[in-house]
């Protein structure tokens, strides 16, 4: 899912898995198209908010994405007049001004907001657009260090690891989300899931963790999955969720060292095999990923994970090694 897509339901069923995984893996090997453009891209990641400012930011970003740079500049300027402290609008206005003073504006924002992953990410994108790859890499690393539990840091990680699928792999749960989420803004959904988790058990923490993954908060998701495992140490889905939550592009072994033994100890679990296959896809090990997905499809053939593994294998047929 694009970080610019407004989230309607931040926890979803396993049916989302195949499309999301294949879309990500299909980008591997041809480069992220966003970095191939001459002008820098915008990645404001206004996912949770739904007030008038957030709506205006999304509209301005859409204008920029569609090539209406002048309209985007005007929209960001209008937001800043009404919300002078809006860092997203300031970043958007700086990038939309490229190449006229964009770098200088972002340098000023970096001085004032040295702990902002959003600023470091976009400073890196502008530097990259100007052919300064090494300086851009430094900024993306700073984005990850400054706010690792943010969508901007996740995006910076994509740019630092173009050999991997964009984003981070998610845990796909068969637990049904509560019905009271439907139709509510994303932030309210997240608040409801957090409240339910604090009063509930492993199911609620797993659902909360999957939602946190979808809104670009990998460290918070990891903590939620760890809490689920504390409450239900013998549950296999909690173990797998915790393992997936430890996936880190700088250190994929942190997840594989947990998930591998689970596959060894549970050879007939489609749940384990499916997620191991997904993680292998993320590091572009398509051959081993297919092997794991084949095993997931063959074990417990009537299970939802087996059916999804078959669907994923079918979608992968057009992707080479």
The name of the CATH superfamily of the largest domain reads: Tetratricopeptide repeat domain
Give the overall silhouette: globular
Strand content: under 5%
Number of helices: 16
Mean residue pLDDT = 88
In the CATH hierarchy, the third-tier topology of the largest domain is known as Serine Threonine Protein Phosphatase 5, Tetratricopeptide repeat
What does the model show?
- The chain has 321 residues and is an all-alpha fold.
- The protein folds into two domains: 32-160, Tetratricopeptide repeat domain (Serine Threonine Protein Phosphatase 5, Tetratricopeptide repeat); 179-316, Alpha Horseshoe (Serine Threonine Protein Phosphatase 5, Tetratricopeptide repeat).
- The chain is 62% helix and 0% strand.
- The chain has 16 helices and no strands.
- The chain has helices spanning 16-26, 52-65, 69-82, 87-96, 102-112, 117-129, 133-146, 151-160, 186-199, 202-214, 218-231, 236-245, 253-265, 270-282, 286-298, 304-316.
- Helix 2 packs parallel to helix 4 (87-96), helix 12 packs antiparallel against helix 13 and helix 12 (236-245) runs parallel beside helix 14.
- The radius of gyration is 20 Å and the shape is globular.
- Mean pLDDT is 88; it is low at 1-8 and 28-37.
């Amino acid at each position: 899912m694009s970080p610019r897509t407004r989230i309607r339901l931040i926890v979803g069923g396993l049916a989302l898995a195949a499309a999301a995984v294949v879309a990500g893996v299909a980008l591997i090997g041809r480069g992220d198209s966003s970095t191939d453009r001459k002008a820098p891209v915008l990645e404001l990641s206004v996912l949770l908010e739904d007030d008038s400012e957030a709506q205006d930011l999304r509209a301005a970003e859409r204008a920029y994405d569609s090539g209406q740079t002048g309209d985007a500049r005007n929209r960001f300027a209008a937001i800043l007049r009404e919300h002078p402290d809006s860092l997203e609008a300031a970043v958007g206005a700086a990038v939309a001004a490229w190449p006229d003073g964009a770098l200088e504006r972002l340098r000023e924002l970096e001085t004032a907001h040295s702990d902002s992953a959003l600023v470091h990410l976009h400073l890196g994108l502008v530097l990259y657009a100007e052919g300064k790859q090494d300086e851009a890499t430094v900024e993306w690393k700073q984005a990850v260090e400054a706010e690792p539990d943010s969508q901007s840091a996740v995006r910076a990680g994509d740019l630092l690891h173009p050999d991997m699928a964009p984003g981070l792999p998610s845990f796909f749960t068969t637990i049904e989300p509560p019905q009271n989420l439907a139709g509510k803004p994303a932030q309210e959904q997240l608040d409801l899931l957090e409240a339910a988790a604090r009063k509930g058990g492993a199911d609620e923490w797993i659902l909360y963790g999957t939602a946190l993954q979808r809104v670009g908060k990998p460290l918070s998701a990891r903590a939620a999955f760890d809490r689920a495992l504390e409450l239900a140490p013998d549950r296999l889905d909690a173990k797998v969720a915790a393992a997936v939550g430890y996936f880190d592009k700088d250190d994929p072994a942190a997840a594989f060292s947990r998930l591998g033994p689970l596959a060894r100890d549970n050879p007939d679990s489609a749940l384990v095999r499916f997620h191991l296959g997904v993680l292998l896809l993320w590091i572009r090990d398509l051959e081993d990923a297919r092997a794991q997905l084949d095993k997931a499809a063959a074990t417990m053939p009537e299970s939802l994970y087996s059916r999804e593994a078959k669907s994923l294998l079918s979608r992968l047929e057009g992707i080479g090694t």
